[in-house]
Amino acid sequence: MVDIEQITSGINFSLTEEQLMLQKMAREFTAKEITPVAEEYDREAKFPEEIFHKARHLGLANMNIPAEYGGVGASVLEECLVSEEMAYGCSGISTSVGTNGLGALPILLGGSEQQKAHWMGERLGDKGEFVSYGVTESGAGSNVVGIETRAEKKGGSYIINGSKIFITNASHANFFTVAAKTDPNAGHKGITFFVVDRNAPGVSIGKKFDKVGQRASDTAEIVFEDVEVPAENMIGGEGKGFYLAMKVFDYSRPGVAAAAVGLQRRALEESVKYASERMAFGVPIYQHQAIGHKIADMAINYQASRLLVWQAAWQADHGIHNPAVPAYAKAFAADMATRAAVDAVQVLGGYGYMKEYPVEKLLRDVKIFQIYEGTSEIQRNIIVRELFSGKK
């Protein structure tokens, strides 16, 4: 386990001028393009394709595509800055806009130069396509080793059979990065990643799920029936999929946690605004300690969550692998965002329960943060494992 002092040594909490400009651009983009339509996209479960392309043209989507493949080559911290700003406006829209970054990670971290140039440069960059990340199955969510999708070698190809569930942007994705078992008897060493084109015979997309929250984010099932995938679409080598998936988490969890931070800030600001205007017993309600302290706790937890996210992002950007740190960020930010949303509804009282006020939506949107990209329980399992490694 990496010592915490080693992780934080040399840290600088000041953003560069370029990062401040990026943050400002993302905040202005959110205010113009996301916040005004968030209620409509949520109500209609509308996929934000137009918003995605506007973000892409500004360099606010596909951010992790390296410059040599036509992208901006943003750091994980810079991705987190944008994720926080967009999720402030709507975490559902933010999720769909940012999912290409997740789907591209196996290629970015384990792909060949040819794979990166084609799938990231040509397909995502030049053509503006969508990619989804296909790991979760009905019987295997947090337990990646439990996946049952098979990939059997046949000549110069692999035949994939199985299904993936709860896959973000699946209905709109042009290709998928898919984890499958190439050796079902090898445990975690029998998992391999492949790129699968949506148009390959045997690929089908199930009905889009109707969700409680983050309704602007498309979520659907993918089914593979005798799908032939050329061996050249294998990512990172046979049997390397589990290790690649674990590495992906180091880069993906900070961004998800950052979105939870953005939702926290929205809950905090809506609470401050309402508590400043709403009068009770002759004074604004924030002057009543029961309300004022609740909002103070929101502010404390928002700042603490943000610092954990930045630490996790800094670690990823510096190539330090310590799974506990993104687990700290993901668990704390998700749990505190959930608390903030609940408390914001309480601060607004009856109005907070009505759809005409945005905190009702925050309450519906927030719960998934404790579930996707590894549940809060799994994050704690990771932390326990790291704390007690070598103690047996």
Layout of secondary structure:
Elements: H1 4-8, H2 17-34, H3 38-44, H4 49-58, H5 76-89, H6 91-110, H7 113-126, E1 131-134, E2 150-154, E3 157-168, E4 175-181, E5 191-197, E6 203-205, E7 219-230, E8 234-235, H8 241-277, E9 279-280, E10 283-284, H9 289-317, H10 324-348, H11 358-366, H12 376-387
Parallel strand pairs: 1-4
Antiparallel strand pairs: 2-3, 3-7, 4-5, 5-8, 6-7, 9-10
Helix pairs in contact: 2-5, 5-6, 5-8, 6-7, 6-8, 8-9, 8-10, 8-11, 9-10, 10-11, 10-12
In brief, what are we looking at here?
The protein is α+β, with helices and mostly antiparallel strands and 392 residues long. The protein is 51% helix and 14% strand.
Structural features, described:
The chain is an alpha+beta fold and 392 residues long. It is built from 12 helices and 10 strands. It has a 4-stranded mixed beta sheet, covered by helices on one side. A 4-stranded antiparallel beta sheet has the order 2-3-7-6, covered by helices on one side. It has a two-stranded antiparallel ribbon with strand order 9-10. Strand 9 and strand 10 form a beta hairpin. The longest helix is centred in the middle third of the chain and has 37 residues. The model has no long low-confidence stretch (mean pLDDT 95).
Q: Key terms for this structure?
A:
alpha+beta, single chain, 10 strands, Butyryl-CoA Dehydrogenase, subunit A, domain 3, 3 domains, 51% helix, globular, 392 residues, Butyryl-CoA Dehydrogenase, subunit A, domain 2
Q: Mean pLDDT across all residues, rounded? A: 95
Beta-strand residue fraction: 5-15%
Number of DSSP E strands: 10
Instruction: State the CATH superfamily name of the largest domain.
Output: Butyryl-CoA Dehydrogenase, subunit A, domain 3
Unreliable runs: none
What would the CATH topology of the largest domain be? Butyryl-CoA Dehydrogenase, subunit A, domain 3
